[in-house]
Amino acid sequence: MTLSFELAATDGTARRGRITTAHGTIETPAFMPVGTAGTVKAMLPRSVAETGAEIVLGNTYHLMLRPGAERVAALGGLHRFMNWPGPILTDSGGFQVMSLKELRKLDPDGVTFKSPIDGASHRLTPERSIEIQNLLDADITMSFDECTSWPVAEDVAAASMRLSMKWAERGRRAFVERPGYGLFGIVQGSTFPDLRVESAKALTGIGFDGYAIGGLAVGEGQETMFCVLDVTIPMLPQDRPRYLMGVGRPADIVGAVKRGIDMFDCVLPTRGGRTAQAFTRRGELNLRNARHRDDPRPIDEHCACPACRDHSRAYLHHLIRSEEILAAMLLTWHNLQYFQDIMRGLRGAIESGSLSAWIAAFEDEQARGDIQPL
What we know:
The protein has 374 residues and is of the alpha/beta class. The protein has two domains: 4-266, Queuine tRNA-ribosyltransferase-like (TIM Barrel); 277-368, no CATH class. It has 15 helices and 16 strands. The protein has helices spanning 45-50, 60-65, 69-74, 78-82, 94-99, 126-136, 154-174, 193-206, 222-232, 250-259, 268-274, 306-310, 313-321, 325-352, 355-368, and strands at 4-11, 14-21, 24-28, 30-32, 56-59, 88-91, 104-107, 110-114, 121-124, 140-142, 182-187, 210-213, 242-244, 263-265, 277-280, 283-286. It has an eight-stranded parallel β-sheet with strand order 4-14-13-12-11-10-6-5. Strands 1-2-3 form a three-stranded antiparallel β-sheet. Helix 11 (268-274) packs antiparallel against helix 14, helix 13 crosses helix 14 and helix 14 runs antiparallel to helix 15 (355-368). It is globular, with a radius of gyration of 20 Å.
């Protein structure tokens, strides 16, 4: 194993750790902004770093289609290509196996995709996914899997999970070990506890640098998601990072950290920034709503991002209604800043042994909601 993970503190089952990669250190619990096609939408790389993010996520499938992994490699790898010097994790393309059903054909060896860009045919196998991620120079490579849709019958989920475990073993053999780089396995099994346990045992038997939990946040609801985590997390090694894929809302992240998850990614803060949605300590706001048009307050008076530091809700509302690009830039920055502030708060609370009090204060503020101006 060449990816270093140090566990610095615990509070109950919550963990405070540090992952050391070829391109830098990641303090955990960590949230990874999503940069699917080699960019975090509406953000400069240095702006992403200013929020406190230390690692970003790229996507094998999208970068395979355009501009092509071989082209990125020839231009110096994804870090140089997108001007992000820090660590990068690349999703394997497995999520697209679920989300692009109308454009793909699945077989035991892999998946054939029809490009939505030009109709060309592309083939992803466990070995090719690993090869692409190597060409991209991803610090953390993800195993190629089939992300099971929801709802799903147990026998279908079982077949899907077992196929993913076979692919995980093939991908492990294809992965090129080098200092500071690692490969994560992905636990599947939908919402069925026995399948999750079987998947976790299969992956730990193969041996990975870290373990992800996939196939959640696809419609099953928070209570069910937490039940799956309660079954799955105890099956994973203590000395390896744990990554909950595609999650999530702030309350989902807090609940998962409490249960022992170390890493997260989600499109919500960036997608929300492009659709007038702001995440705050007191819940979510829709800045398109007319109630903000005369409001001189910032989105959040305790936030240090440019949107809150320099602009009023009234101005942001005006930008949104005028369809100005600056609205997406400012709201995306704010949302990413808020998510990173949550992670900083969680890390500090675990270090000081005060996580329960921190979560109680977080939940209280969320429940209070946004206070109207007098």
